[in-house]
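User: Predict the structure for this protein chain, please.
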Amino acid sequence: MDEELRSLLTSLVEIETENPPGDEAAAAQFVSDWLDSRGVSATLVEEPFPDRPQVAARVGGGEPSVVLNGHLDVVPAGDRDQWTHPPYDSTVRDGRLYGRGSADMKCGVALAMLATVEFADAFESGALDGSLVFHAAVGEETAEPGTKTLLERGYDGTYGVVLEPTALRTATSAKGLGWYEISVGGDPSHASRPDEGDNAIGNARPVLDALEAYDEEIRARSDSLVGRPTTTVTRFEAGTKENVVPESATITVDRRFVPAETVEEVDAEIDALLSDVAAEHDLNVEWTRTRVYESAAVPTDSDIAVRFRDAAAERADIDPEPWGIRAATDVRNLVNDAGMDAITWGPGSMAQAHAYDEYIELSEVEAGYDILRTALRGLFEAGAD
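Assistant: Here is the predicted structure, written as structure tokens:
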């Protein structure tokens, strides 16, 4: 594969950018310096967090304009004893590059960096007309407004590509998610006198039953591209000591929703469900939404989607049928906040995201860059007609 691409990907993976806590600054400086050294004027955007700069650049001055979006942060490596290959060593073995962020999504950032430099030269020489906008955002893994802030600062465009790992398939739809924290009240007592208290764990049972029934109900709302919405209890916490009847229980829920559902509608359903179960069982139940990624969708026949599907089918025999990604990505900001035709597309498998011994196939990285260049060139050439 191209040695510059391999070197760039290796360098990015070796810079630890775990979030939390949000250690993207060193990587942002590296990206900015790399672009500057190749003639692209990059800006370190110190919003929304002054100590966690983002990188943005715009090359060319024509239309159409295309945003290449990636995020610098990665999830924590976790128990490093579980890694066969150290998470920040960029080990290459049997055609795979191992390391935290190799798939999610330092590869996407590397492709965007190379494409920005290549097309800057093409615009400057007059070979092509258009403009390319580069994003290296912070805080994607924790739903922080990195990409949203870059768009608000004017780094937007006609089209967008969020270079998350999709195994080179083109996603025109993405599921959203909401995380909900539900508190169920009780009354503490000594465990030797349980009848003098009110056990919050027992009180939580009808809430859990109601959530299970709700999950079954909403699965009927199937979407042809991203599948079904779901409601999953992912955490349950109660009790402070072995001999104390719990006075509270906390249920954490992961609610995945399809493009036809809005955050406000889901909030209203959760509120109604909990109000009903609280009234029926005389419970003290409260809830809050702790995080949200909105769902997003653009037409499957959008020009950018068609060009990426065709290029991927030609170069790598990728299924050209319309498709949607079940994970939530920053494509929501490009589509919902900036009104752009944007897709999620990139090398790497989502199965590798957040996994021990995360890796990416170098042959897929190379194919990905060919596809990216071909699709972008087609957009810019069509825009000049």
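The chain has two domains: 3-174+295-384, 176-293.
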